[in-house]
Amino acid sequence: MISERIKELRLAMNYSQVELASKLSVTKQTVSNWENDNIQPSIDVLIKLSNFFGVSTDYLLGRDDIPRLDVSGLSNQEISHINMIISDIKNNHSI
Questions:
Q1: pLDDT confidence of 6, banded at 50, 70, 90?
Q2: C-alpha span between 59 and 4 (Å, rounded)
Q3: What are the CA-CA distances from residue 80 to residues 15, 67, 76 (Å)?
């Protein structure tokens, strides 16, 4: 599951494997191996991935199917704006 989630999140951010590798200070081959399920990221890297993509480690591991947004450090007004944007997007998909 983690291989699929890493690739899905990377593509959603329009990053190449090389770009993601650079952001995480690993090689492109390492990212490729994660995505092809040849190796698993270490716990430290799993946490880096979680922070980088703004999702929980449970989401990356497939223990949770709902990606969570990290809104820590944002004001209530900023969180409200984000919730409004999410609501608008959901409403546009249901049309």
A1: very high
A2: 11
A3: 28, 18, 6
d(Cα 58, Cα 79) in Å, to the nearest integer? 22
Give the gyration radius of the chain's Cα atoms.
15
Chain mean position to CA 86: 17
pLDDT tens-place string over residues 70-88: 788 889 999 899 889 988 9
CA dihedral 10, 11, 15, 19 (to 10 degrees): 50
User: For 18-23, which contacts have Cβ atoms below 8 Å and span 24 or more sequence positions?
Assistant: 23/52
Q: How far apart are CA 35 and CA 89, in angstroms?
A: 28
Domains in the chain (CATH in brackets) are 2-61 (1.10.260.40)
Q: Over 90: is that where the pLDDT of 54 sits?
A: no
C-beta separation of 66 from 59 below 8 A: yes
